[in-house]
Amino acid sequence: MAFEVTAGAQAVGQTVEPAAKCGVWIFTYLKHKYDYVRNLGKNFKKLENEEMRLQNRKADVQNVLAANVGRMHITNECRNWFQQVDEKKDKIQHLKTKYRRINKYLCGLCPFPSLLRLGRDVVKETKELVSLRDQIKLENPVMTECAPTPPDRFRNRHAQKIDDLPSLNRHVEIVQDLLKQDEFKRVCIWGPPGVGKTTVMENLHDKVGQTSQFEVIFWVTMDNTECVEKIQRVLEDQLGLPVDEKSSTGKRAAKISEELENKSYLLFLDHVSSKINLREVGIHDDHNCGKVVFACTSRDNGNFCGPTDEDIKIEKLSKEDAQKLFNRKVSADIMKKQEIIRLAPLIVKECGGMPNMINLIAQKLAKVNDSARWRDTLLELQAPSKQPSRELEEVYQLFKLPYNDLDESKQLCLLYWALFPVGYEVHRDYITECWRAEQLISFARLGETRDRGHTVLDEFVNAGLLDRGIKARHYKMFEHFQRVALRIAKCNAGSHRILVKEGANITEEQWTCAERVSLIQHQLSSLPEQPQCSGILTLLLQKNKSLTQIPVSFFACMQKLRVLDLHDTRIMSLPSSISSLIKLRGLYLNDCGELENIPADIGKLQSLEIFDIRRTKIRNLPKEIQELTNLKCLRVSFEQNVSSHNHFQGNPVVVIHPDTVSKLISLEELSIGIDHHNTEWNNIVGAIVEELVGLEELTTLCFYFPGEDCLRPFICQSVSWNRENMQGNNFRSFNIIVGHHQTNNPSEFDISECSTEKHLRFSGGGSVPDTVLQILQHAYSFELIGHQNVTNLSLFGADRLGGLEICKIEECNEMESIIDGDMIGGVAFQFLKQLHIINIPKLVHIWKGLVSPESLSRLTKLILKDCPSLENLFSKAHGIVQQLVQLQHLEVEHCLEMKEIIETGSDVSAALPKLKTIELRNLPKLSTIWSEVSWEWPSLETIEIRECVMLKDLPSTMANAIKLRWIRCTSDWKNELNWPSDPAIKDRFQRMFVSVYQQ
């Protein structure tokens, strides 16, 4: 029984033990499954964390790849890893969707199997995320070195074609020729916004790119930020250089320089608006085959990229090209309508030859068949409304952007230009005086105001808002900007506060509200009797040649008027109401050719600072001028009937009353114009000089001293000239004429190119007074006329000639050379830009003796006339031609013994590299310009030949002048030329000839 029990127990035990183990296993299994469910939330959070870590690892790897783009390429392992990461992202997103759906169930209501499967998948994917992340580590190679990418030689800009627009395309041809010459490494292309600089640059870029001249050509469009870095990025990209954004610009510049050092390359920089140090980019001057062409708005900005070898101004389109460009954009069928044929040229004219504006307007009208819309466009261009059309908004912004960068006072100065007619050129001194009168620029001294005004004008030019005029020291606003300026001015001041009229008369209401009125060139013949305009500040009536009379009460209500301009009208007198202008600061009566007197009421204008009465019929200054104690600038001329007492209607007239000049205690600028032939001036000049010497504020003087006897008191006693022992340095400008040459009137002489207006003319005499030498030491331009004894200018001393920029010598009968280098013993004329030599009968040398290296090194213009003894302009004995490295214009006329321009045998290995123009007239014995036919004449563009019958070898002499475009000559002379054997030379020259009539 016991055995049975024991056996039974053993049997049971053997059964229970496996069952127990099975139960434990089942329990553990169920518990593990339940853990998937119980820890689902925690495990899901871990999944999200690991996913985030994986994505971070992916981003880090991508950064490594980006930093080595171009230098290395991605491994296959890394590429597969990216693919797995993307696939895993999709799976994780699927789990997130299931998890969010389960969370919507109420507690306990979700089926356990679903929870179990989700929990298991979450744990599984988490492990796989960790494993996937660990497959790629940053220290493992994910990239391998790749073969260097050859640089992109050229990336076409697909420029707008301009081959049929000669006035624009010629700039492309000029620069293309320059780039073929080794010495031109840096070229500036400049002009106002919208004139076509980018179009020229792009055409140049594409045309050069079609040649094999450069191994690589770059293009960078600049902005106002990170100039150096931006250029470096473009160069690195195109050269295929490795980029390390963490590397300094200096290290990157070194790599770029190393890469370019032995390459021929061309870099285009468009829209340059600030200084760029190209060395910091990696562009060096010692890159012998590297060149840079850049575009900016002003020639004054030409040093933005360092010194330039050539500056090319982009001019406005010609009338024909402007119309051609416009017609390109407009449907040919539309251009056949009679009314549109009439309107199109008027619209094109208002675009001012600016390609950008022409394109905008043409695109606007390209498919417009309604002539009413064409008329409306013309009206908008002529008188822009307050809200410009979409097409004109771009032009408006070209003005508005730089305008907004100005401070308020400069904005007002710029908007003052809205008072002038479109295209009107304004002298810099005049506009500065207007600004001062309206207190837009305010300094105690007039000279300081002028200096600031010149600075402001230069700033406007540099910003592309103004352009320099054709006349020296004149400025003008671009036509399309002028309209915009007027619109802004009207918006700022109200539509009736500024009145600029071109046709209609001003209404009484407009006079009442006006602050500034411009009726320039308005063909006025009459004015209202007494306009009610108590708020008017500026009134511009100049150039109305039909205006002969001003009503008596016209100025009665203009007590606030600051500027009154009546110049170049035909008024015969001023009304008594002129006395009402108690705030007037600037009064302009110059060129009023019928004005005979100034009323005594002028003395009541106590605020007057600028008074201009040149070139009138005025015989004398009224005594009341003495009362103008605030007058700072007086410009007057007595060019007829000057004497101590003119007789007018039987009564003696005092030209300038005693003490008049001395009582003008604030006077800074005095100009008295006199007809030098009138010897009566000699009787009164002494008394005027006595008063002149006491003016303490004087800094500008234009005055005629008939002889040294009246000059000496001024030089020795003038308080202003001798202030603090400065002896003339205190003077901002002067035009001093000493002596008079009786035989002939001096030829015209333009001193406008001088950097400062300090001019001395010394005429006649047999000696050189020390007073003249003292003035000469401060002069920038000098005329020596009719001296009886001087044999060369060396007698004046090198130190006194050193500052001259322009010099003219005329009718000095004993002069044999201009400079004697052995006598002067050093540098002479080192700053001279122009040299005029006229009617010197004994002249046999320009320069005699030793030539120092810097002498004449800045000379740009040489004019020689009526020198009958001169046989060679540049003789081989003195080597002067080697000095003329800046000479651009050469003119030789009426030299009857002249045989050669450059004497045969001269050393001209590097001579005349910038000579552009040669004019030769009436040289009957001239046989050659230079006998060396291999000479290249690298810059020569134009030749004019008249009455040079012996000069027949020009085709051979100029065969290598690659930039030569025009040869102006008579047909008879052309037909007598000797031609070289090469027919191509004759074909080329035949295209250059322009016939002129024999003088």
What does this structure look like?
With 999 residues, the chain is α/β, with parallel strands linked by helices. Among the domains are: 39-145, no CATH class; 166-313, P-loop containing nucleotide triphosphate hydrolases (Rossmann fold), CATH 3.40.50.300; 319-382; 392-485, Orthogonal Bundle (Arc Repressor Mutant, subunit A); 634-725, no CATH class. The protein contains 27 helices and 36 strands. The strands form seven sheets. The chain has a 20-stranded parallel β-sheet, with helices on both faces. The chain has a five-stranded parallel β-sheet with strand order 4-5-6-3-7, with helices on both faces. β21 (700-705), α21 and β22 (733-738) form a beta-alpha-beta unit. α10 (319-329) packs across α11. The longest helix is centred in the N-terminal third of the chain and has 37 residues, at 2-38. The chain is globular, with a radius of gyration of 42 Å. The N and C termini lie far apart (163 Å). Mean pLDDT is 85; it is low at 1-5 and 643-648. Pfam families: LRR_14, LRR_RPS2, NB-ARC. Residues 183-332 form the AAA+ ATPase domain. One of its GO terms (molecular function) is ATP binding.
